[in-house]
Amino acid sequence: MAKKEYEKKHPNITIQIKGFTIKNMFSPVLLEKYLKTTSTEVLSGKGADLFVLNESSLPVDRIVDKKAFVNLNDYINIDTSFDKYQYYINIIQNSKMNGGLYVLPARFFLIALFVDQDAISKTGVKIDDKHNWTWSQFVEVSKQLKQKGTLESEEALQPLKQMITEANTQVRSNDKIQAILSEELKSYFSGQKSAESVADIIQNRVMTYLNE
């Protein structure tokens, strides 16, 4: 659909789509061959004009180091029709490499990690994740928690085991809560509000909804 629409607006351009099937991605031999061949084409200047990438795709860092990808900022800065505020600024900023923007995220998702705050407090390990917390710091704190944390007995795990055993594995979605998340997260990803501020707003709105 997008291909036809683009070609309709630009009759002098023909788009040829070349894909690597999901089935082939499960073959290490075929995947390695594809990555090697495609990387060679890109680095030699004979690659495709546009790529849709995923976690199993090309070695983007190496290609960017070789200056084989275009810095999109060069075009964004001169294109008056491009409205960067239609995008999540925080996501765009964190997609930069070597000071330039060589990829545009088509989608993203969030991963949440839940912990027992009381158990962490007992270890005496101090955690400050409010200011640019890095993965290296996360790993270091995890090692400290492993060394200083204790599990008094097998009984301490029983509440968790019972919760898992009795859990209803059917995935449920609440449209109202999803709408709240969608509305409030925009201000964080656009850089207008901090994570703490948005989290408080979401919590208050969800609790208000659940108590109705």
Short overview:
This protein has 11 helices and no strands.
Secondary structure layout:
Elements: H1 2-9, H2 22-25, H3 28-43, H4 60-65, H5 73-76, H6 89-93, H7 117-123, H8 135-148, H9 158-166, H10 175-189, H11 195-210
State the helix count.
11
Count the E strands.
0
- Largest sheet report: none
| Unreliable sequence segments | none
The total domain count is 3
Helix content: 40-55%
Rg, Cα atoms, Å:
23 Å
Distance linking N and C termini: 43 Å
Strand content: under 5%
- The helix/strand series, from N terminus to C terminus, equals HHHHHHHHHHH
Polypeptide structure, described:
With 212 residues, the protein is an all-alpha fold. The protein folds into three domains: 15-93, no CATH class; 117-166, no CATH class; 175-210, no CATH class. It is built from eleven helices and no strands. It has helices at 2-9, 22-25, 28-43, 60-65, 73-76, 89-93, 117-123, 135-148, 158-166, 175-189, 195-210. The chain is extended. It starts with a helix and ends with a helix.
Q: What are the salient characteristics of this protein?
A:
212 residues, mainly alpha, 0% strand, 3 domains, extended
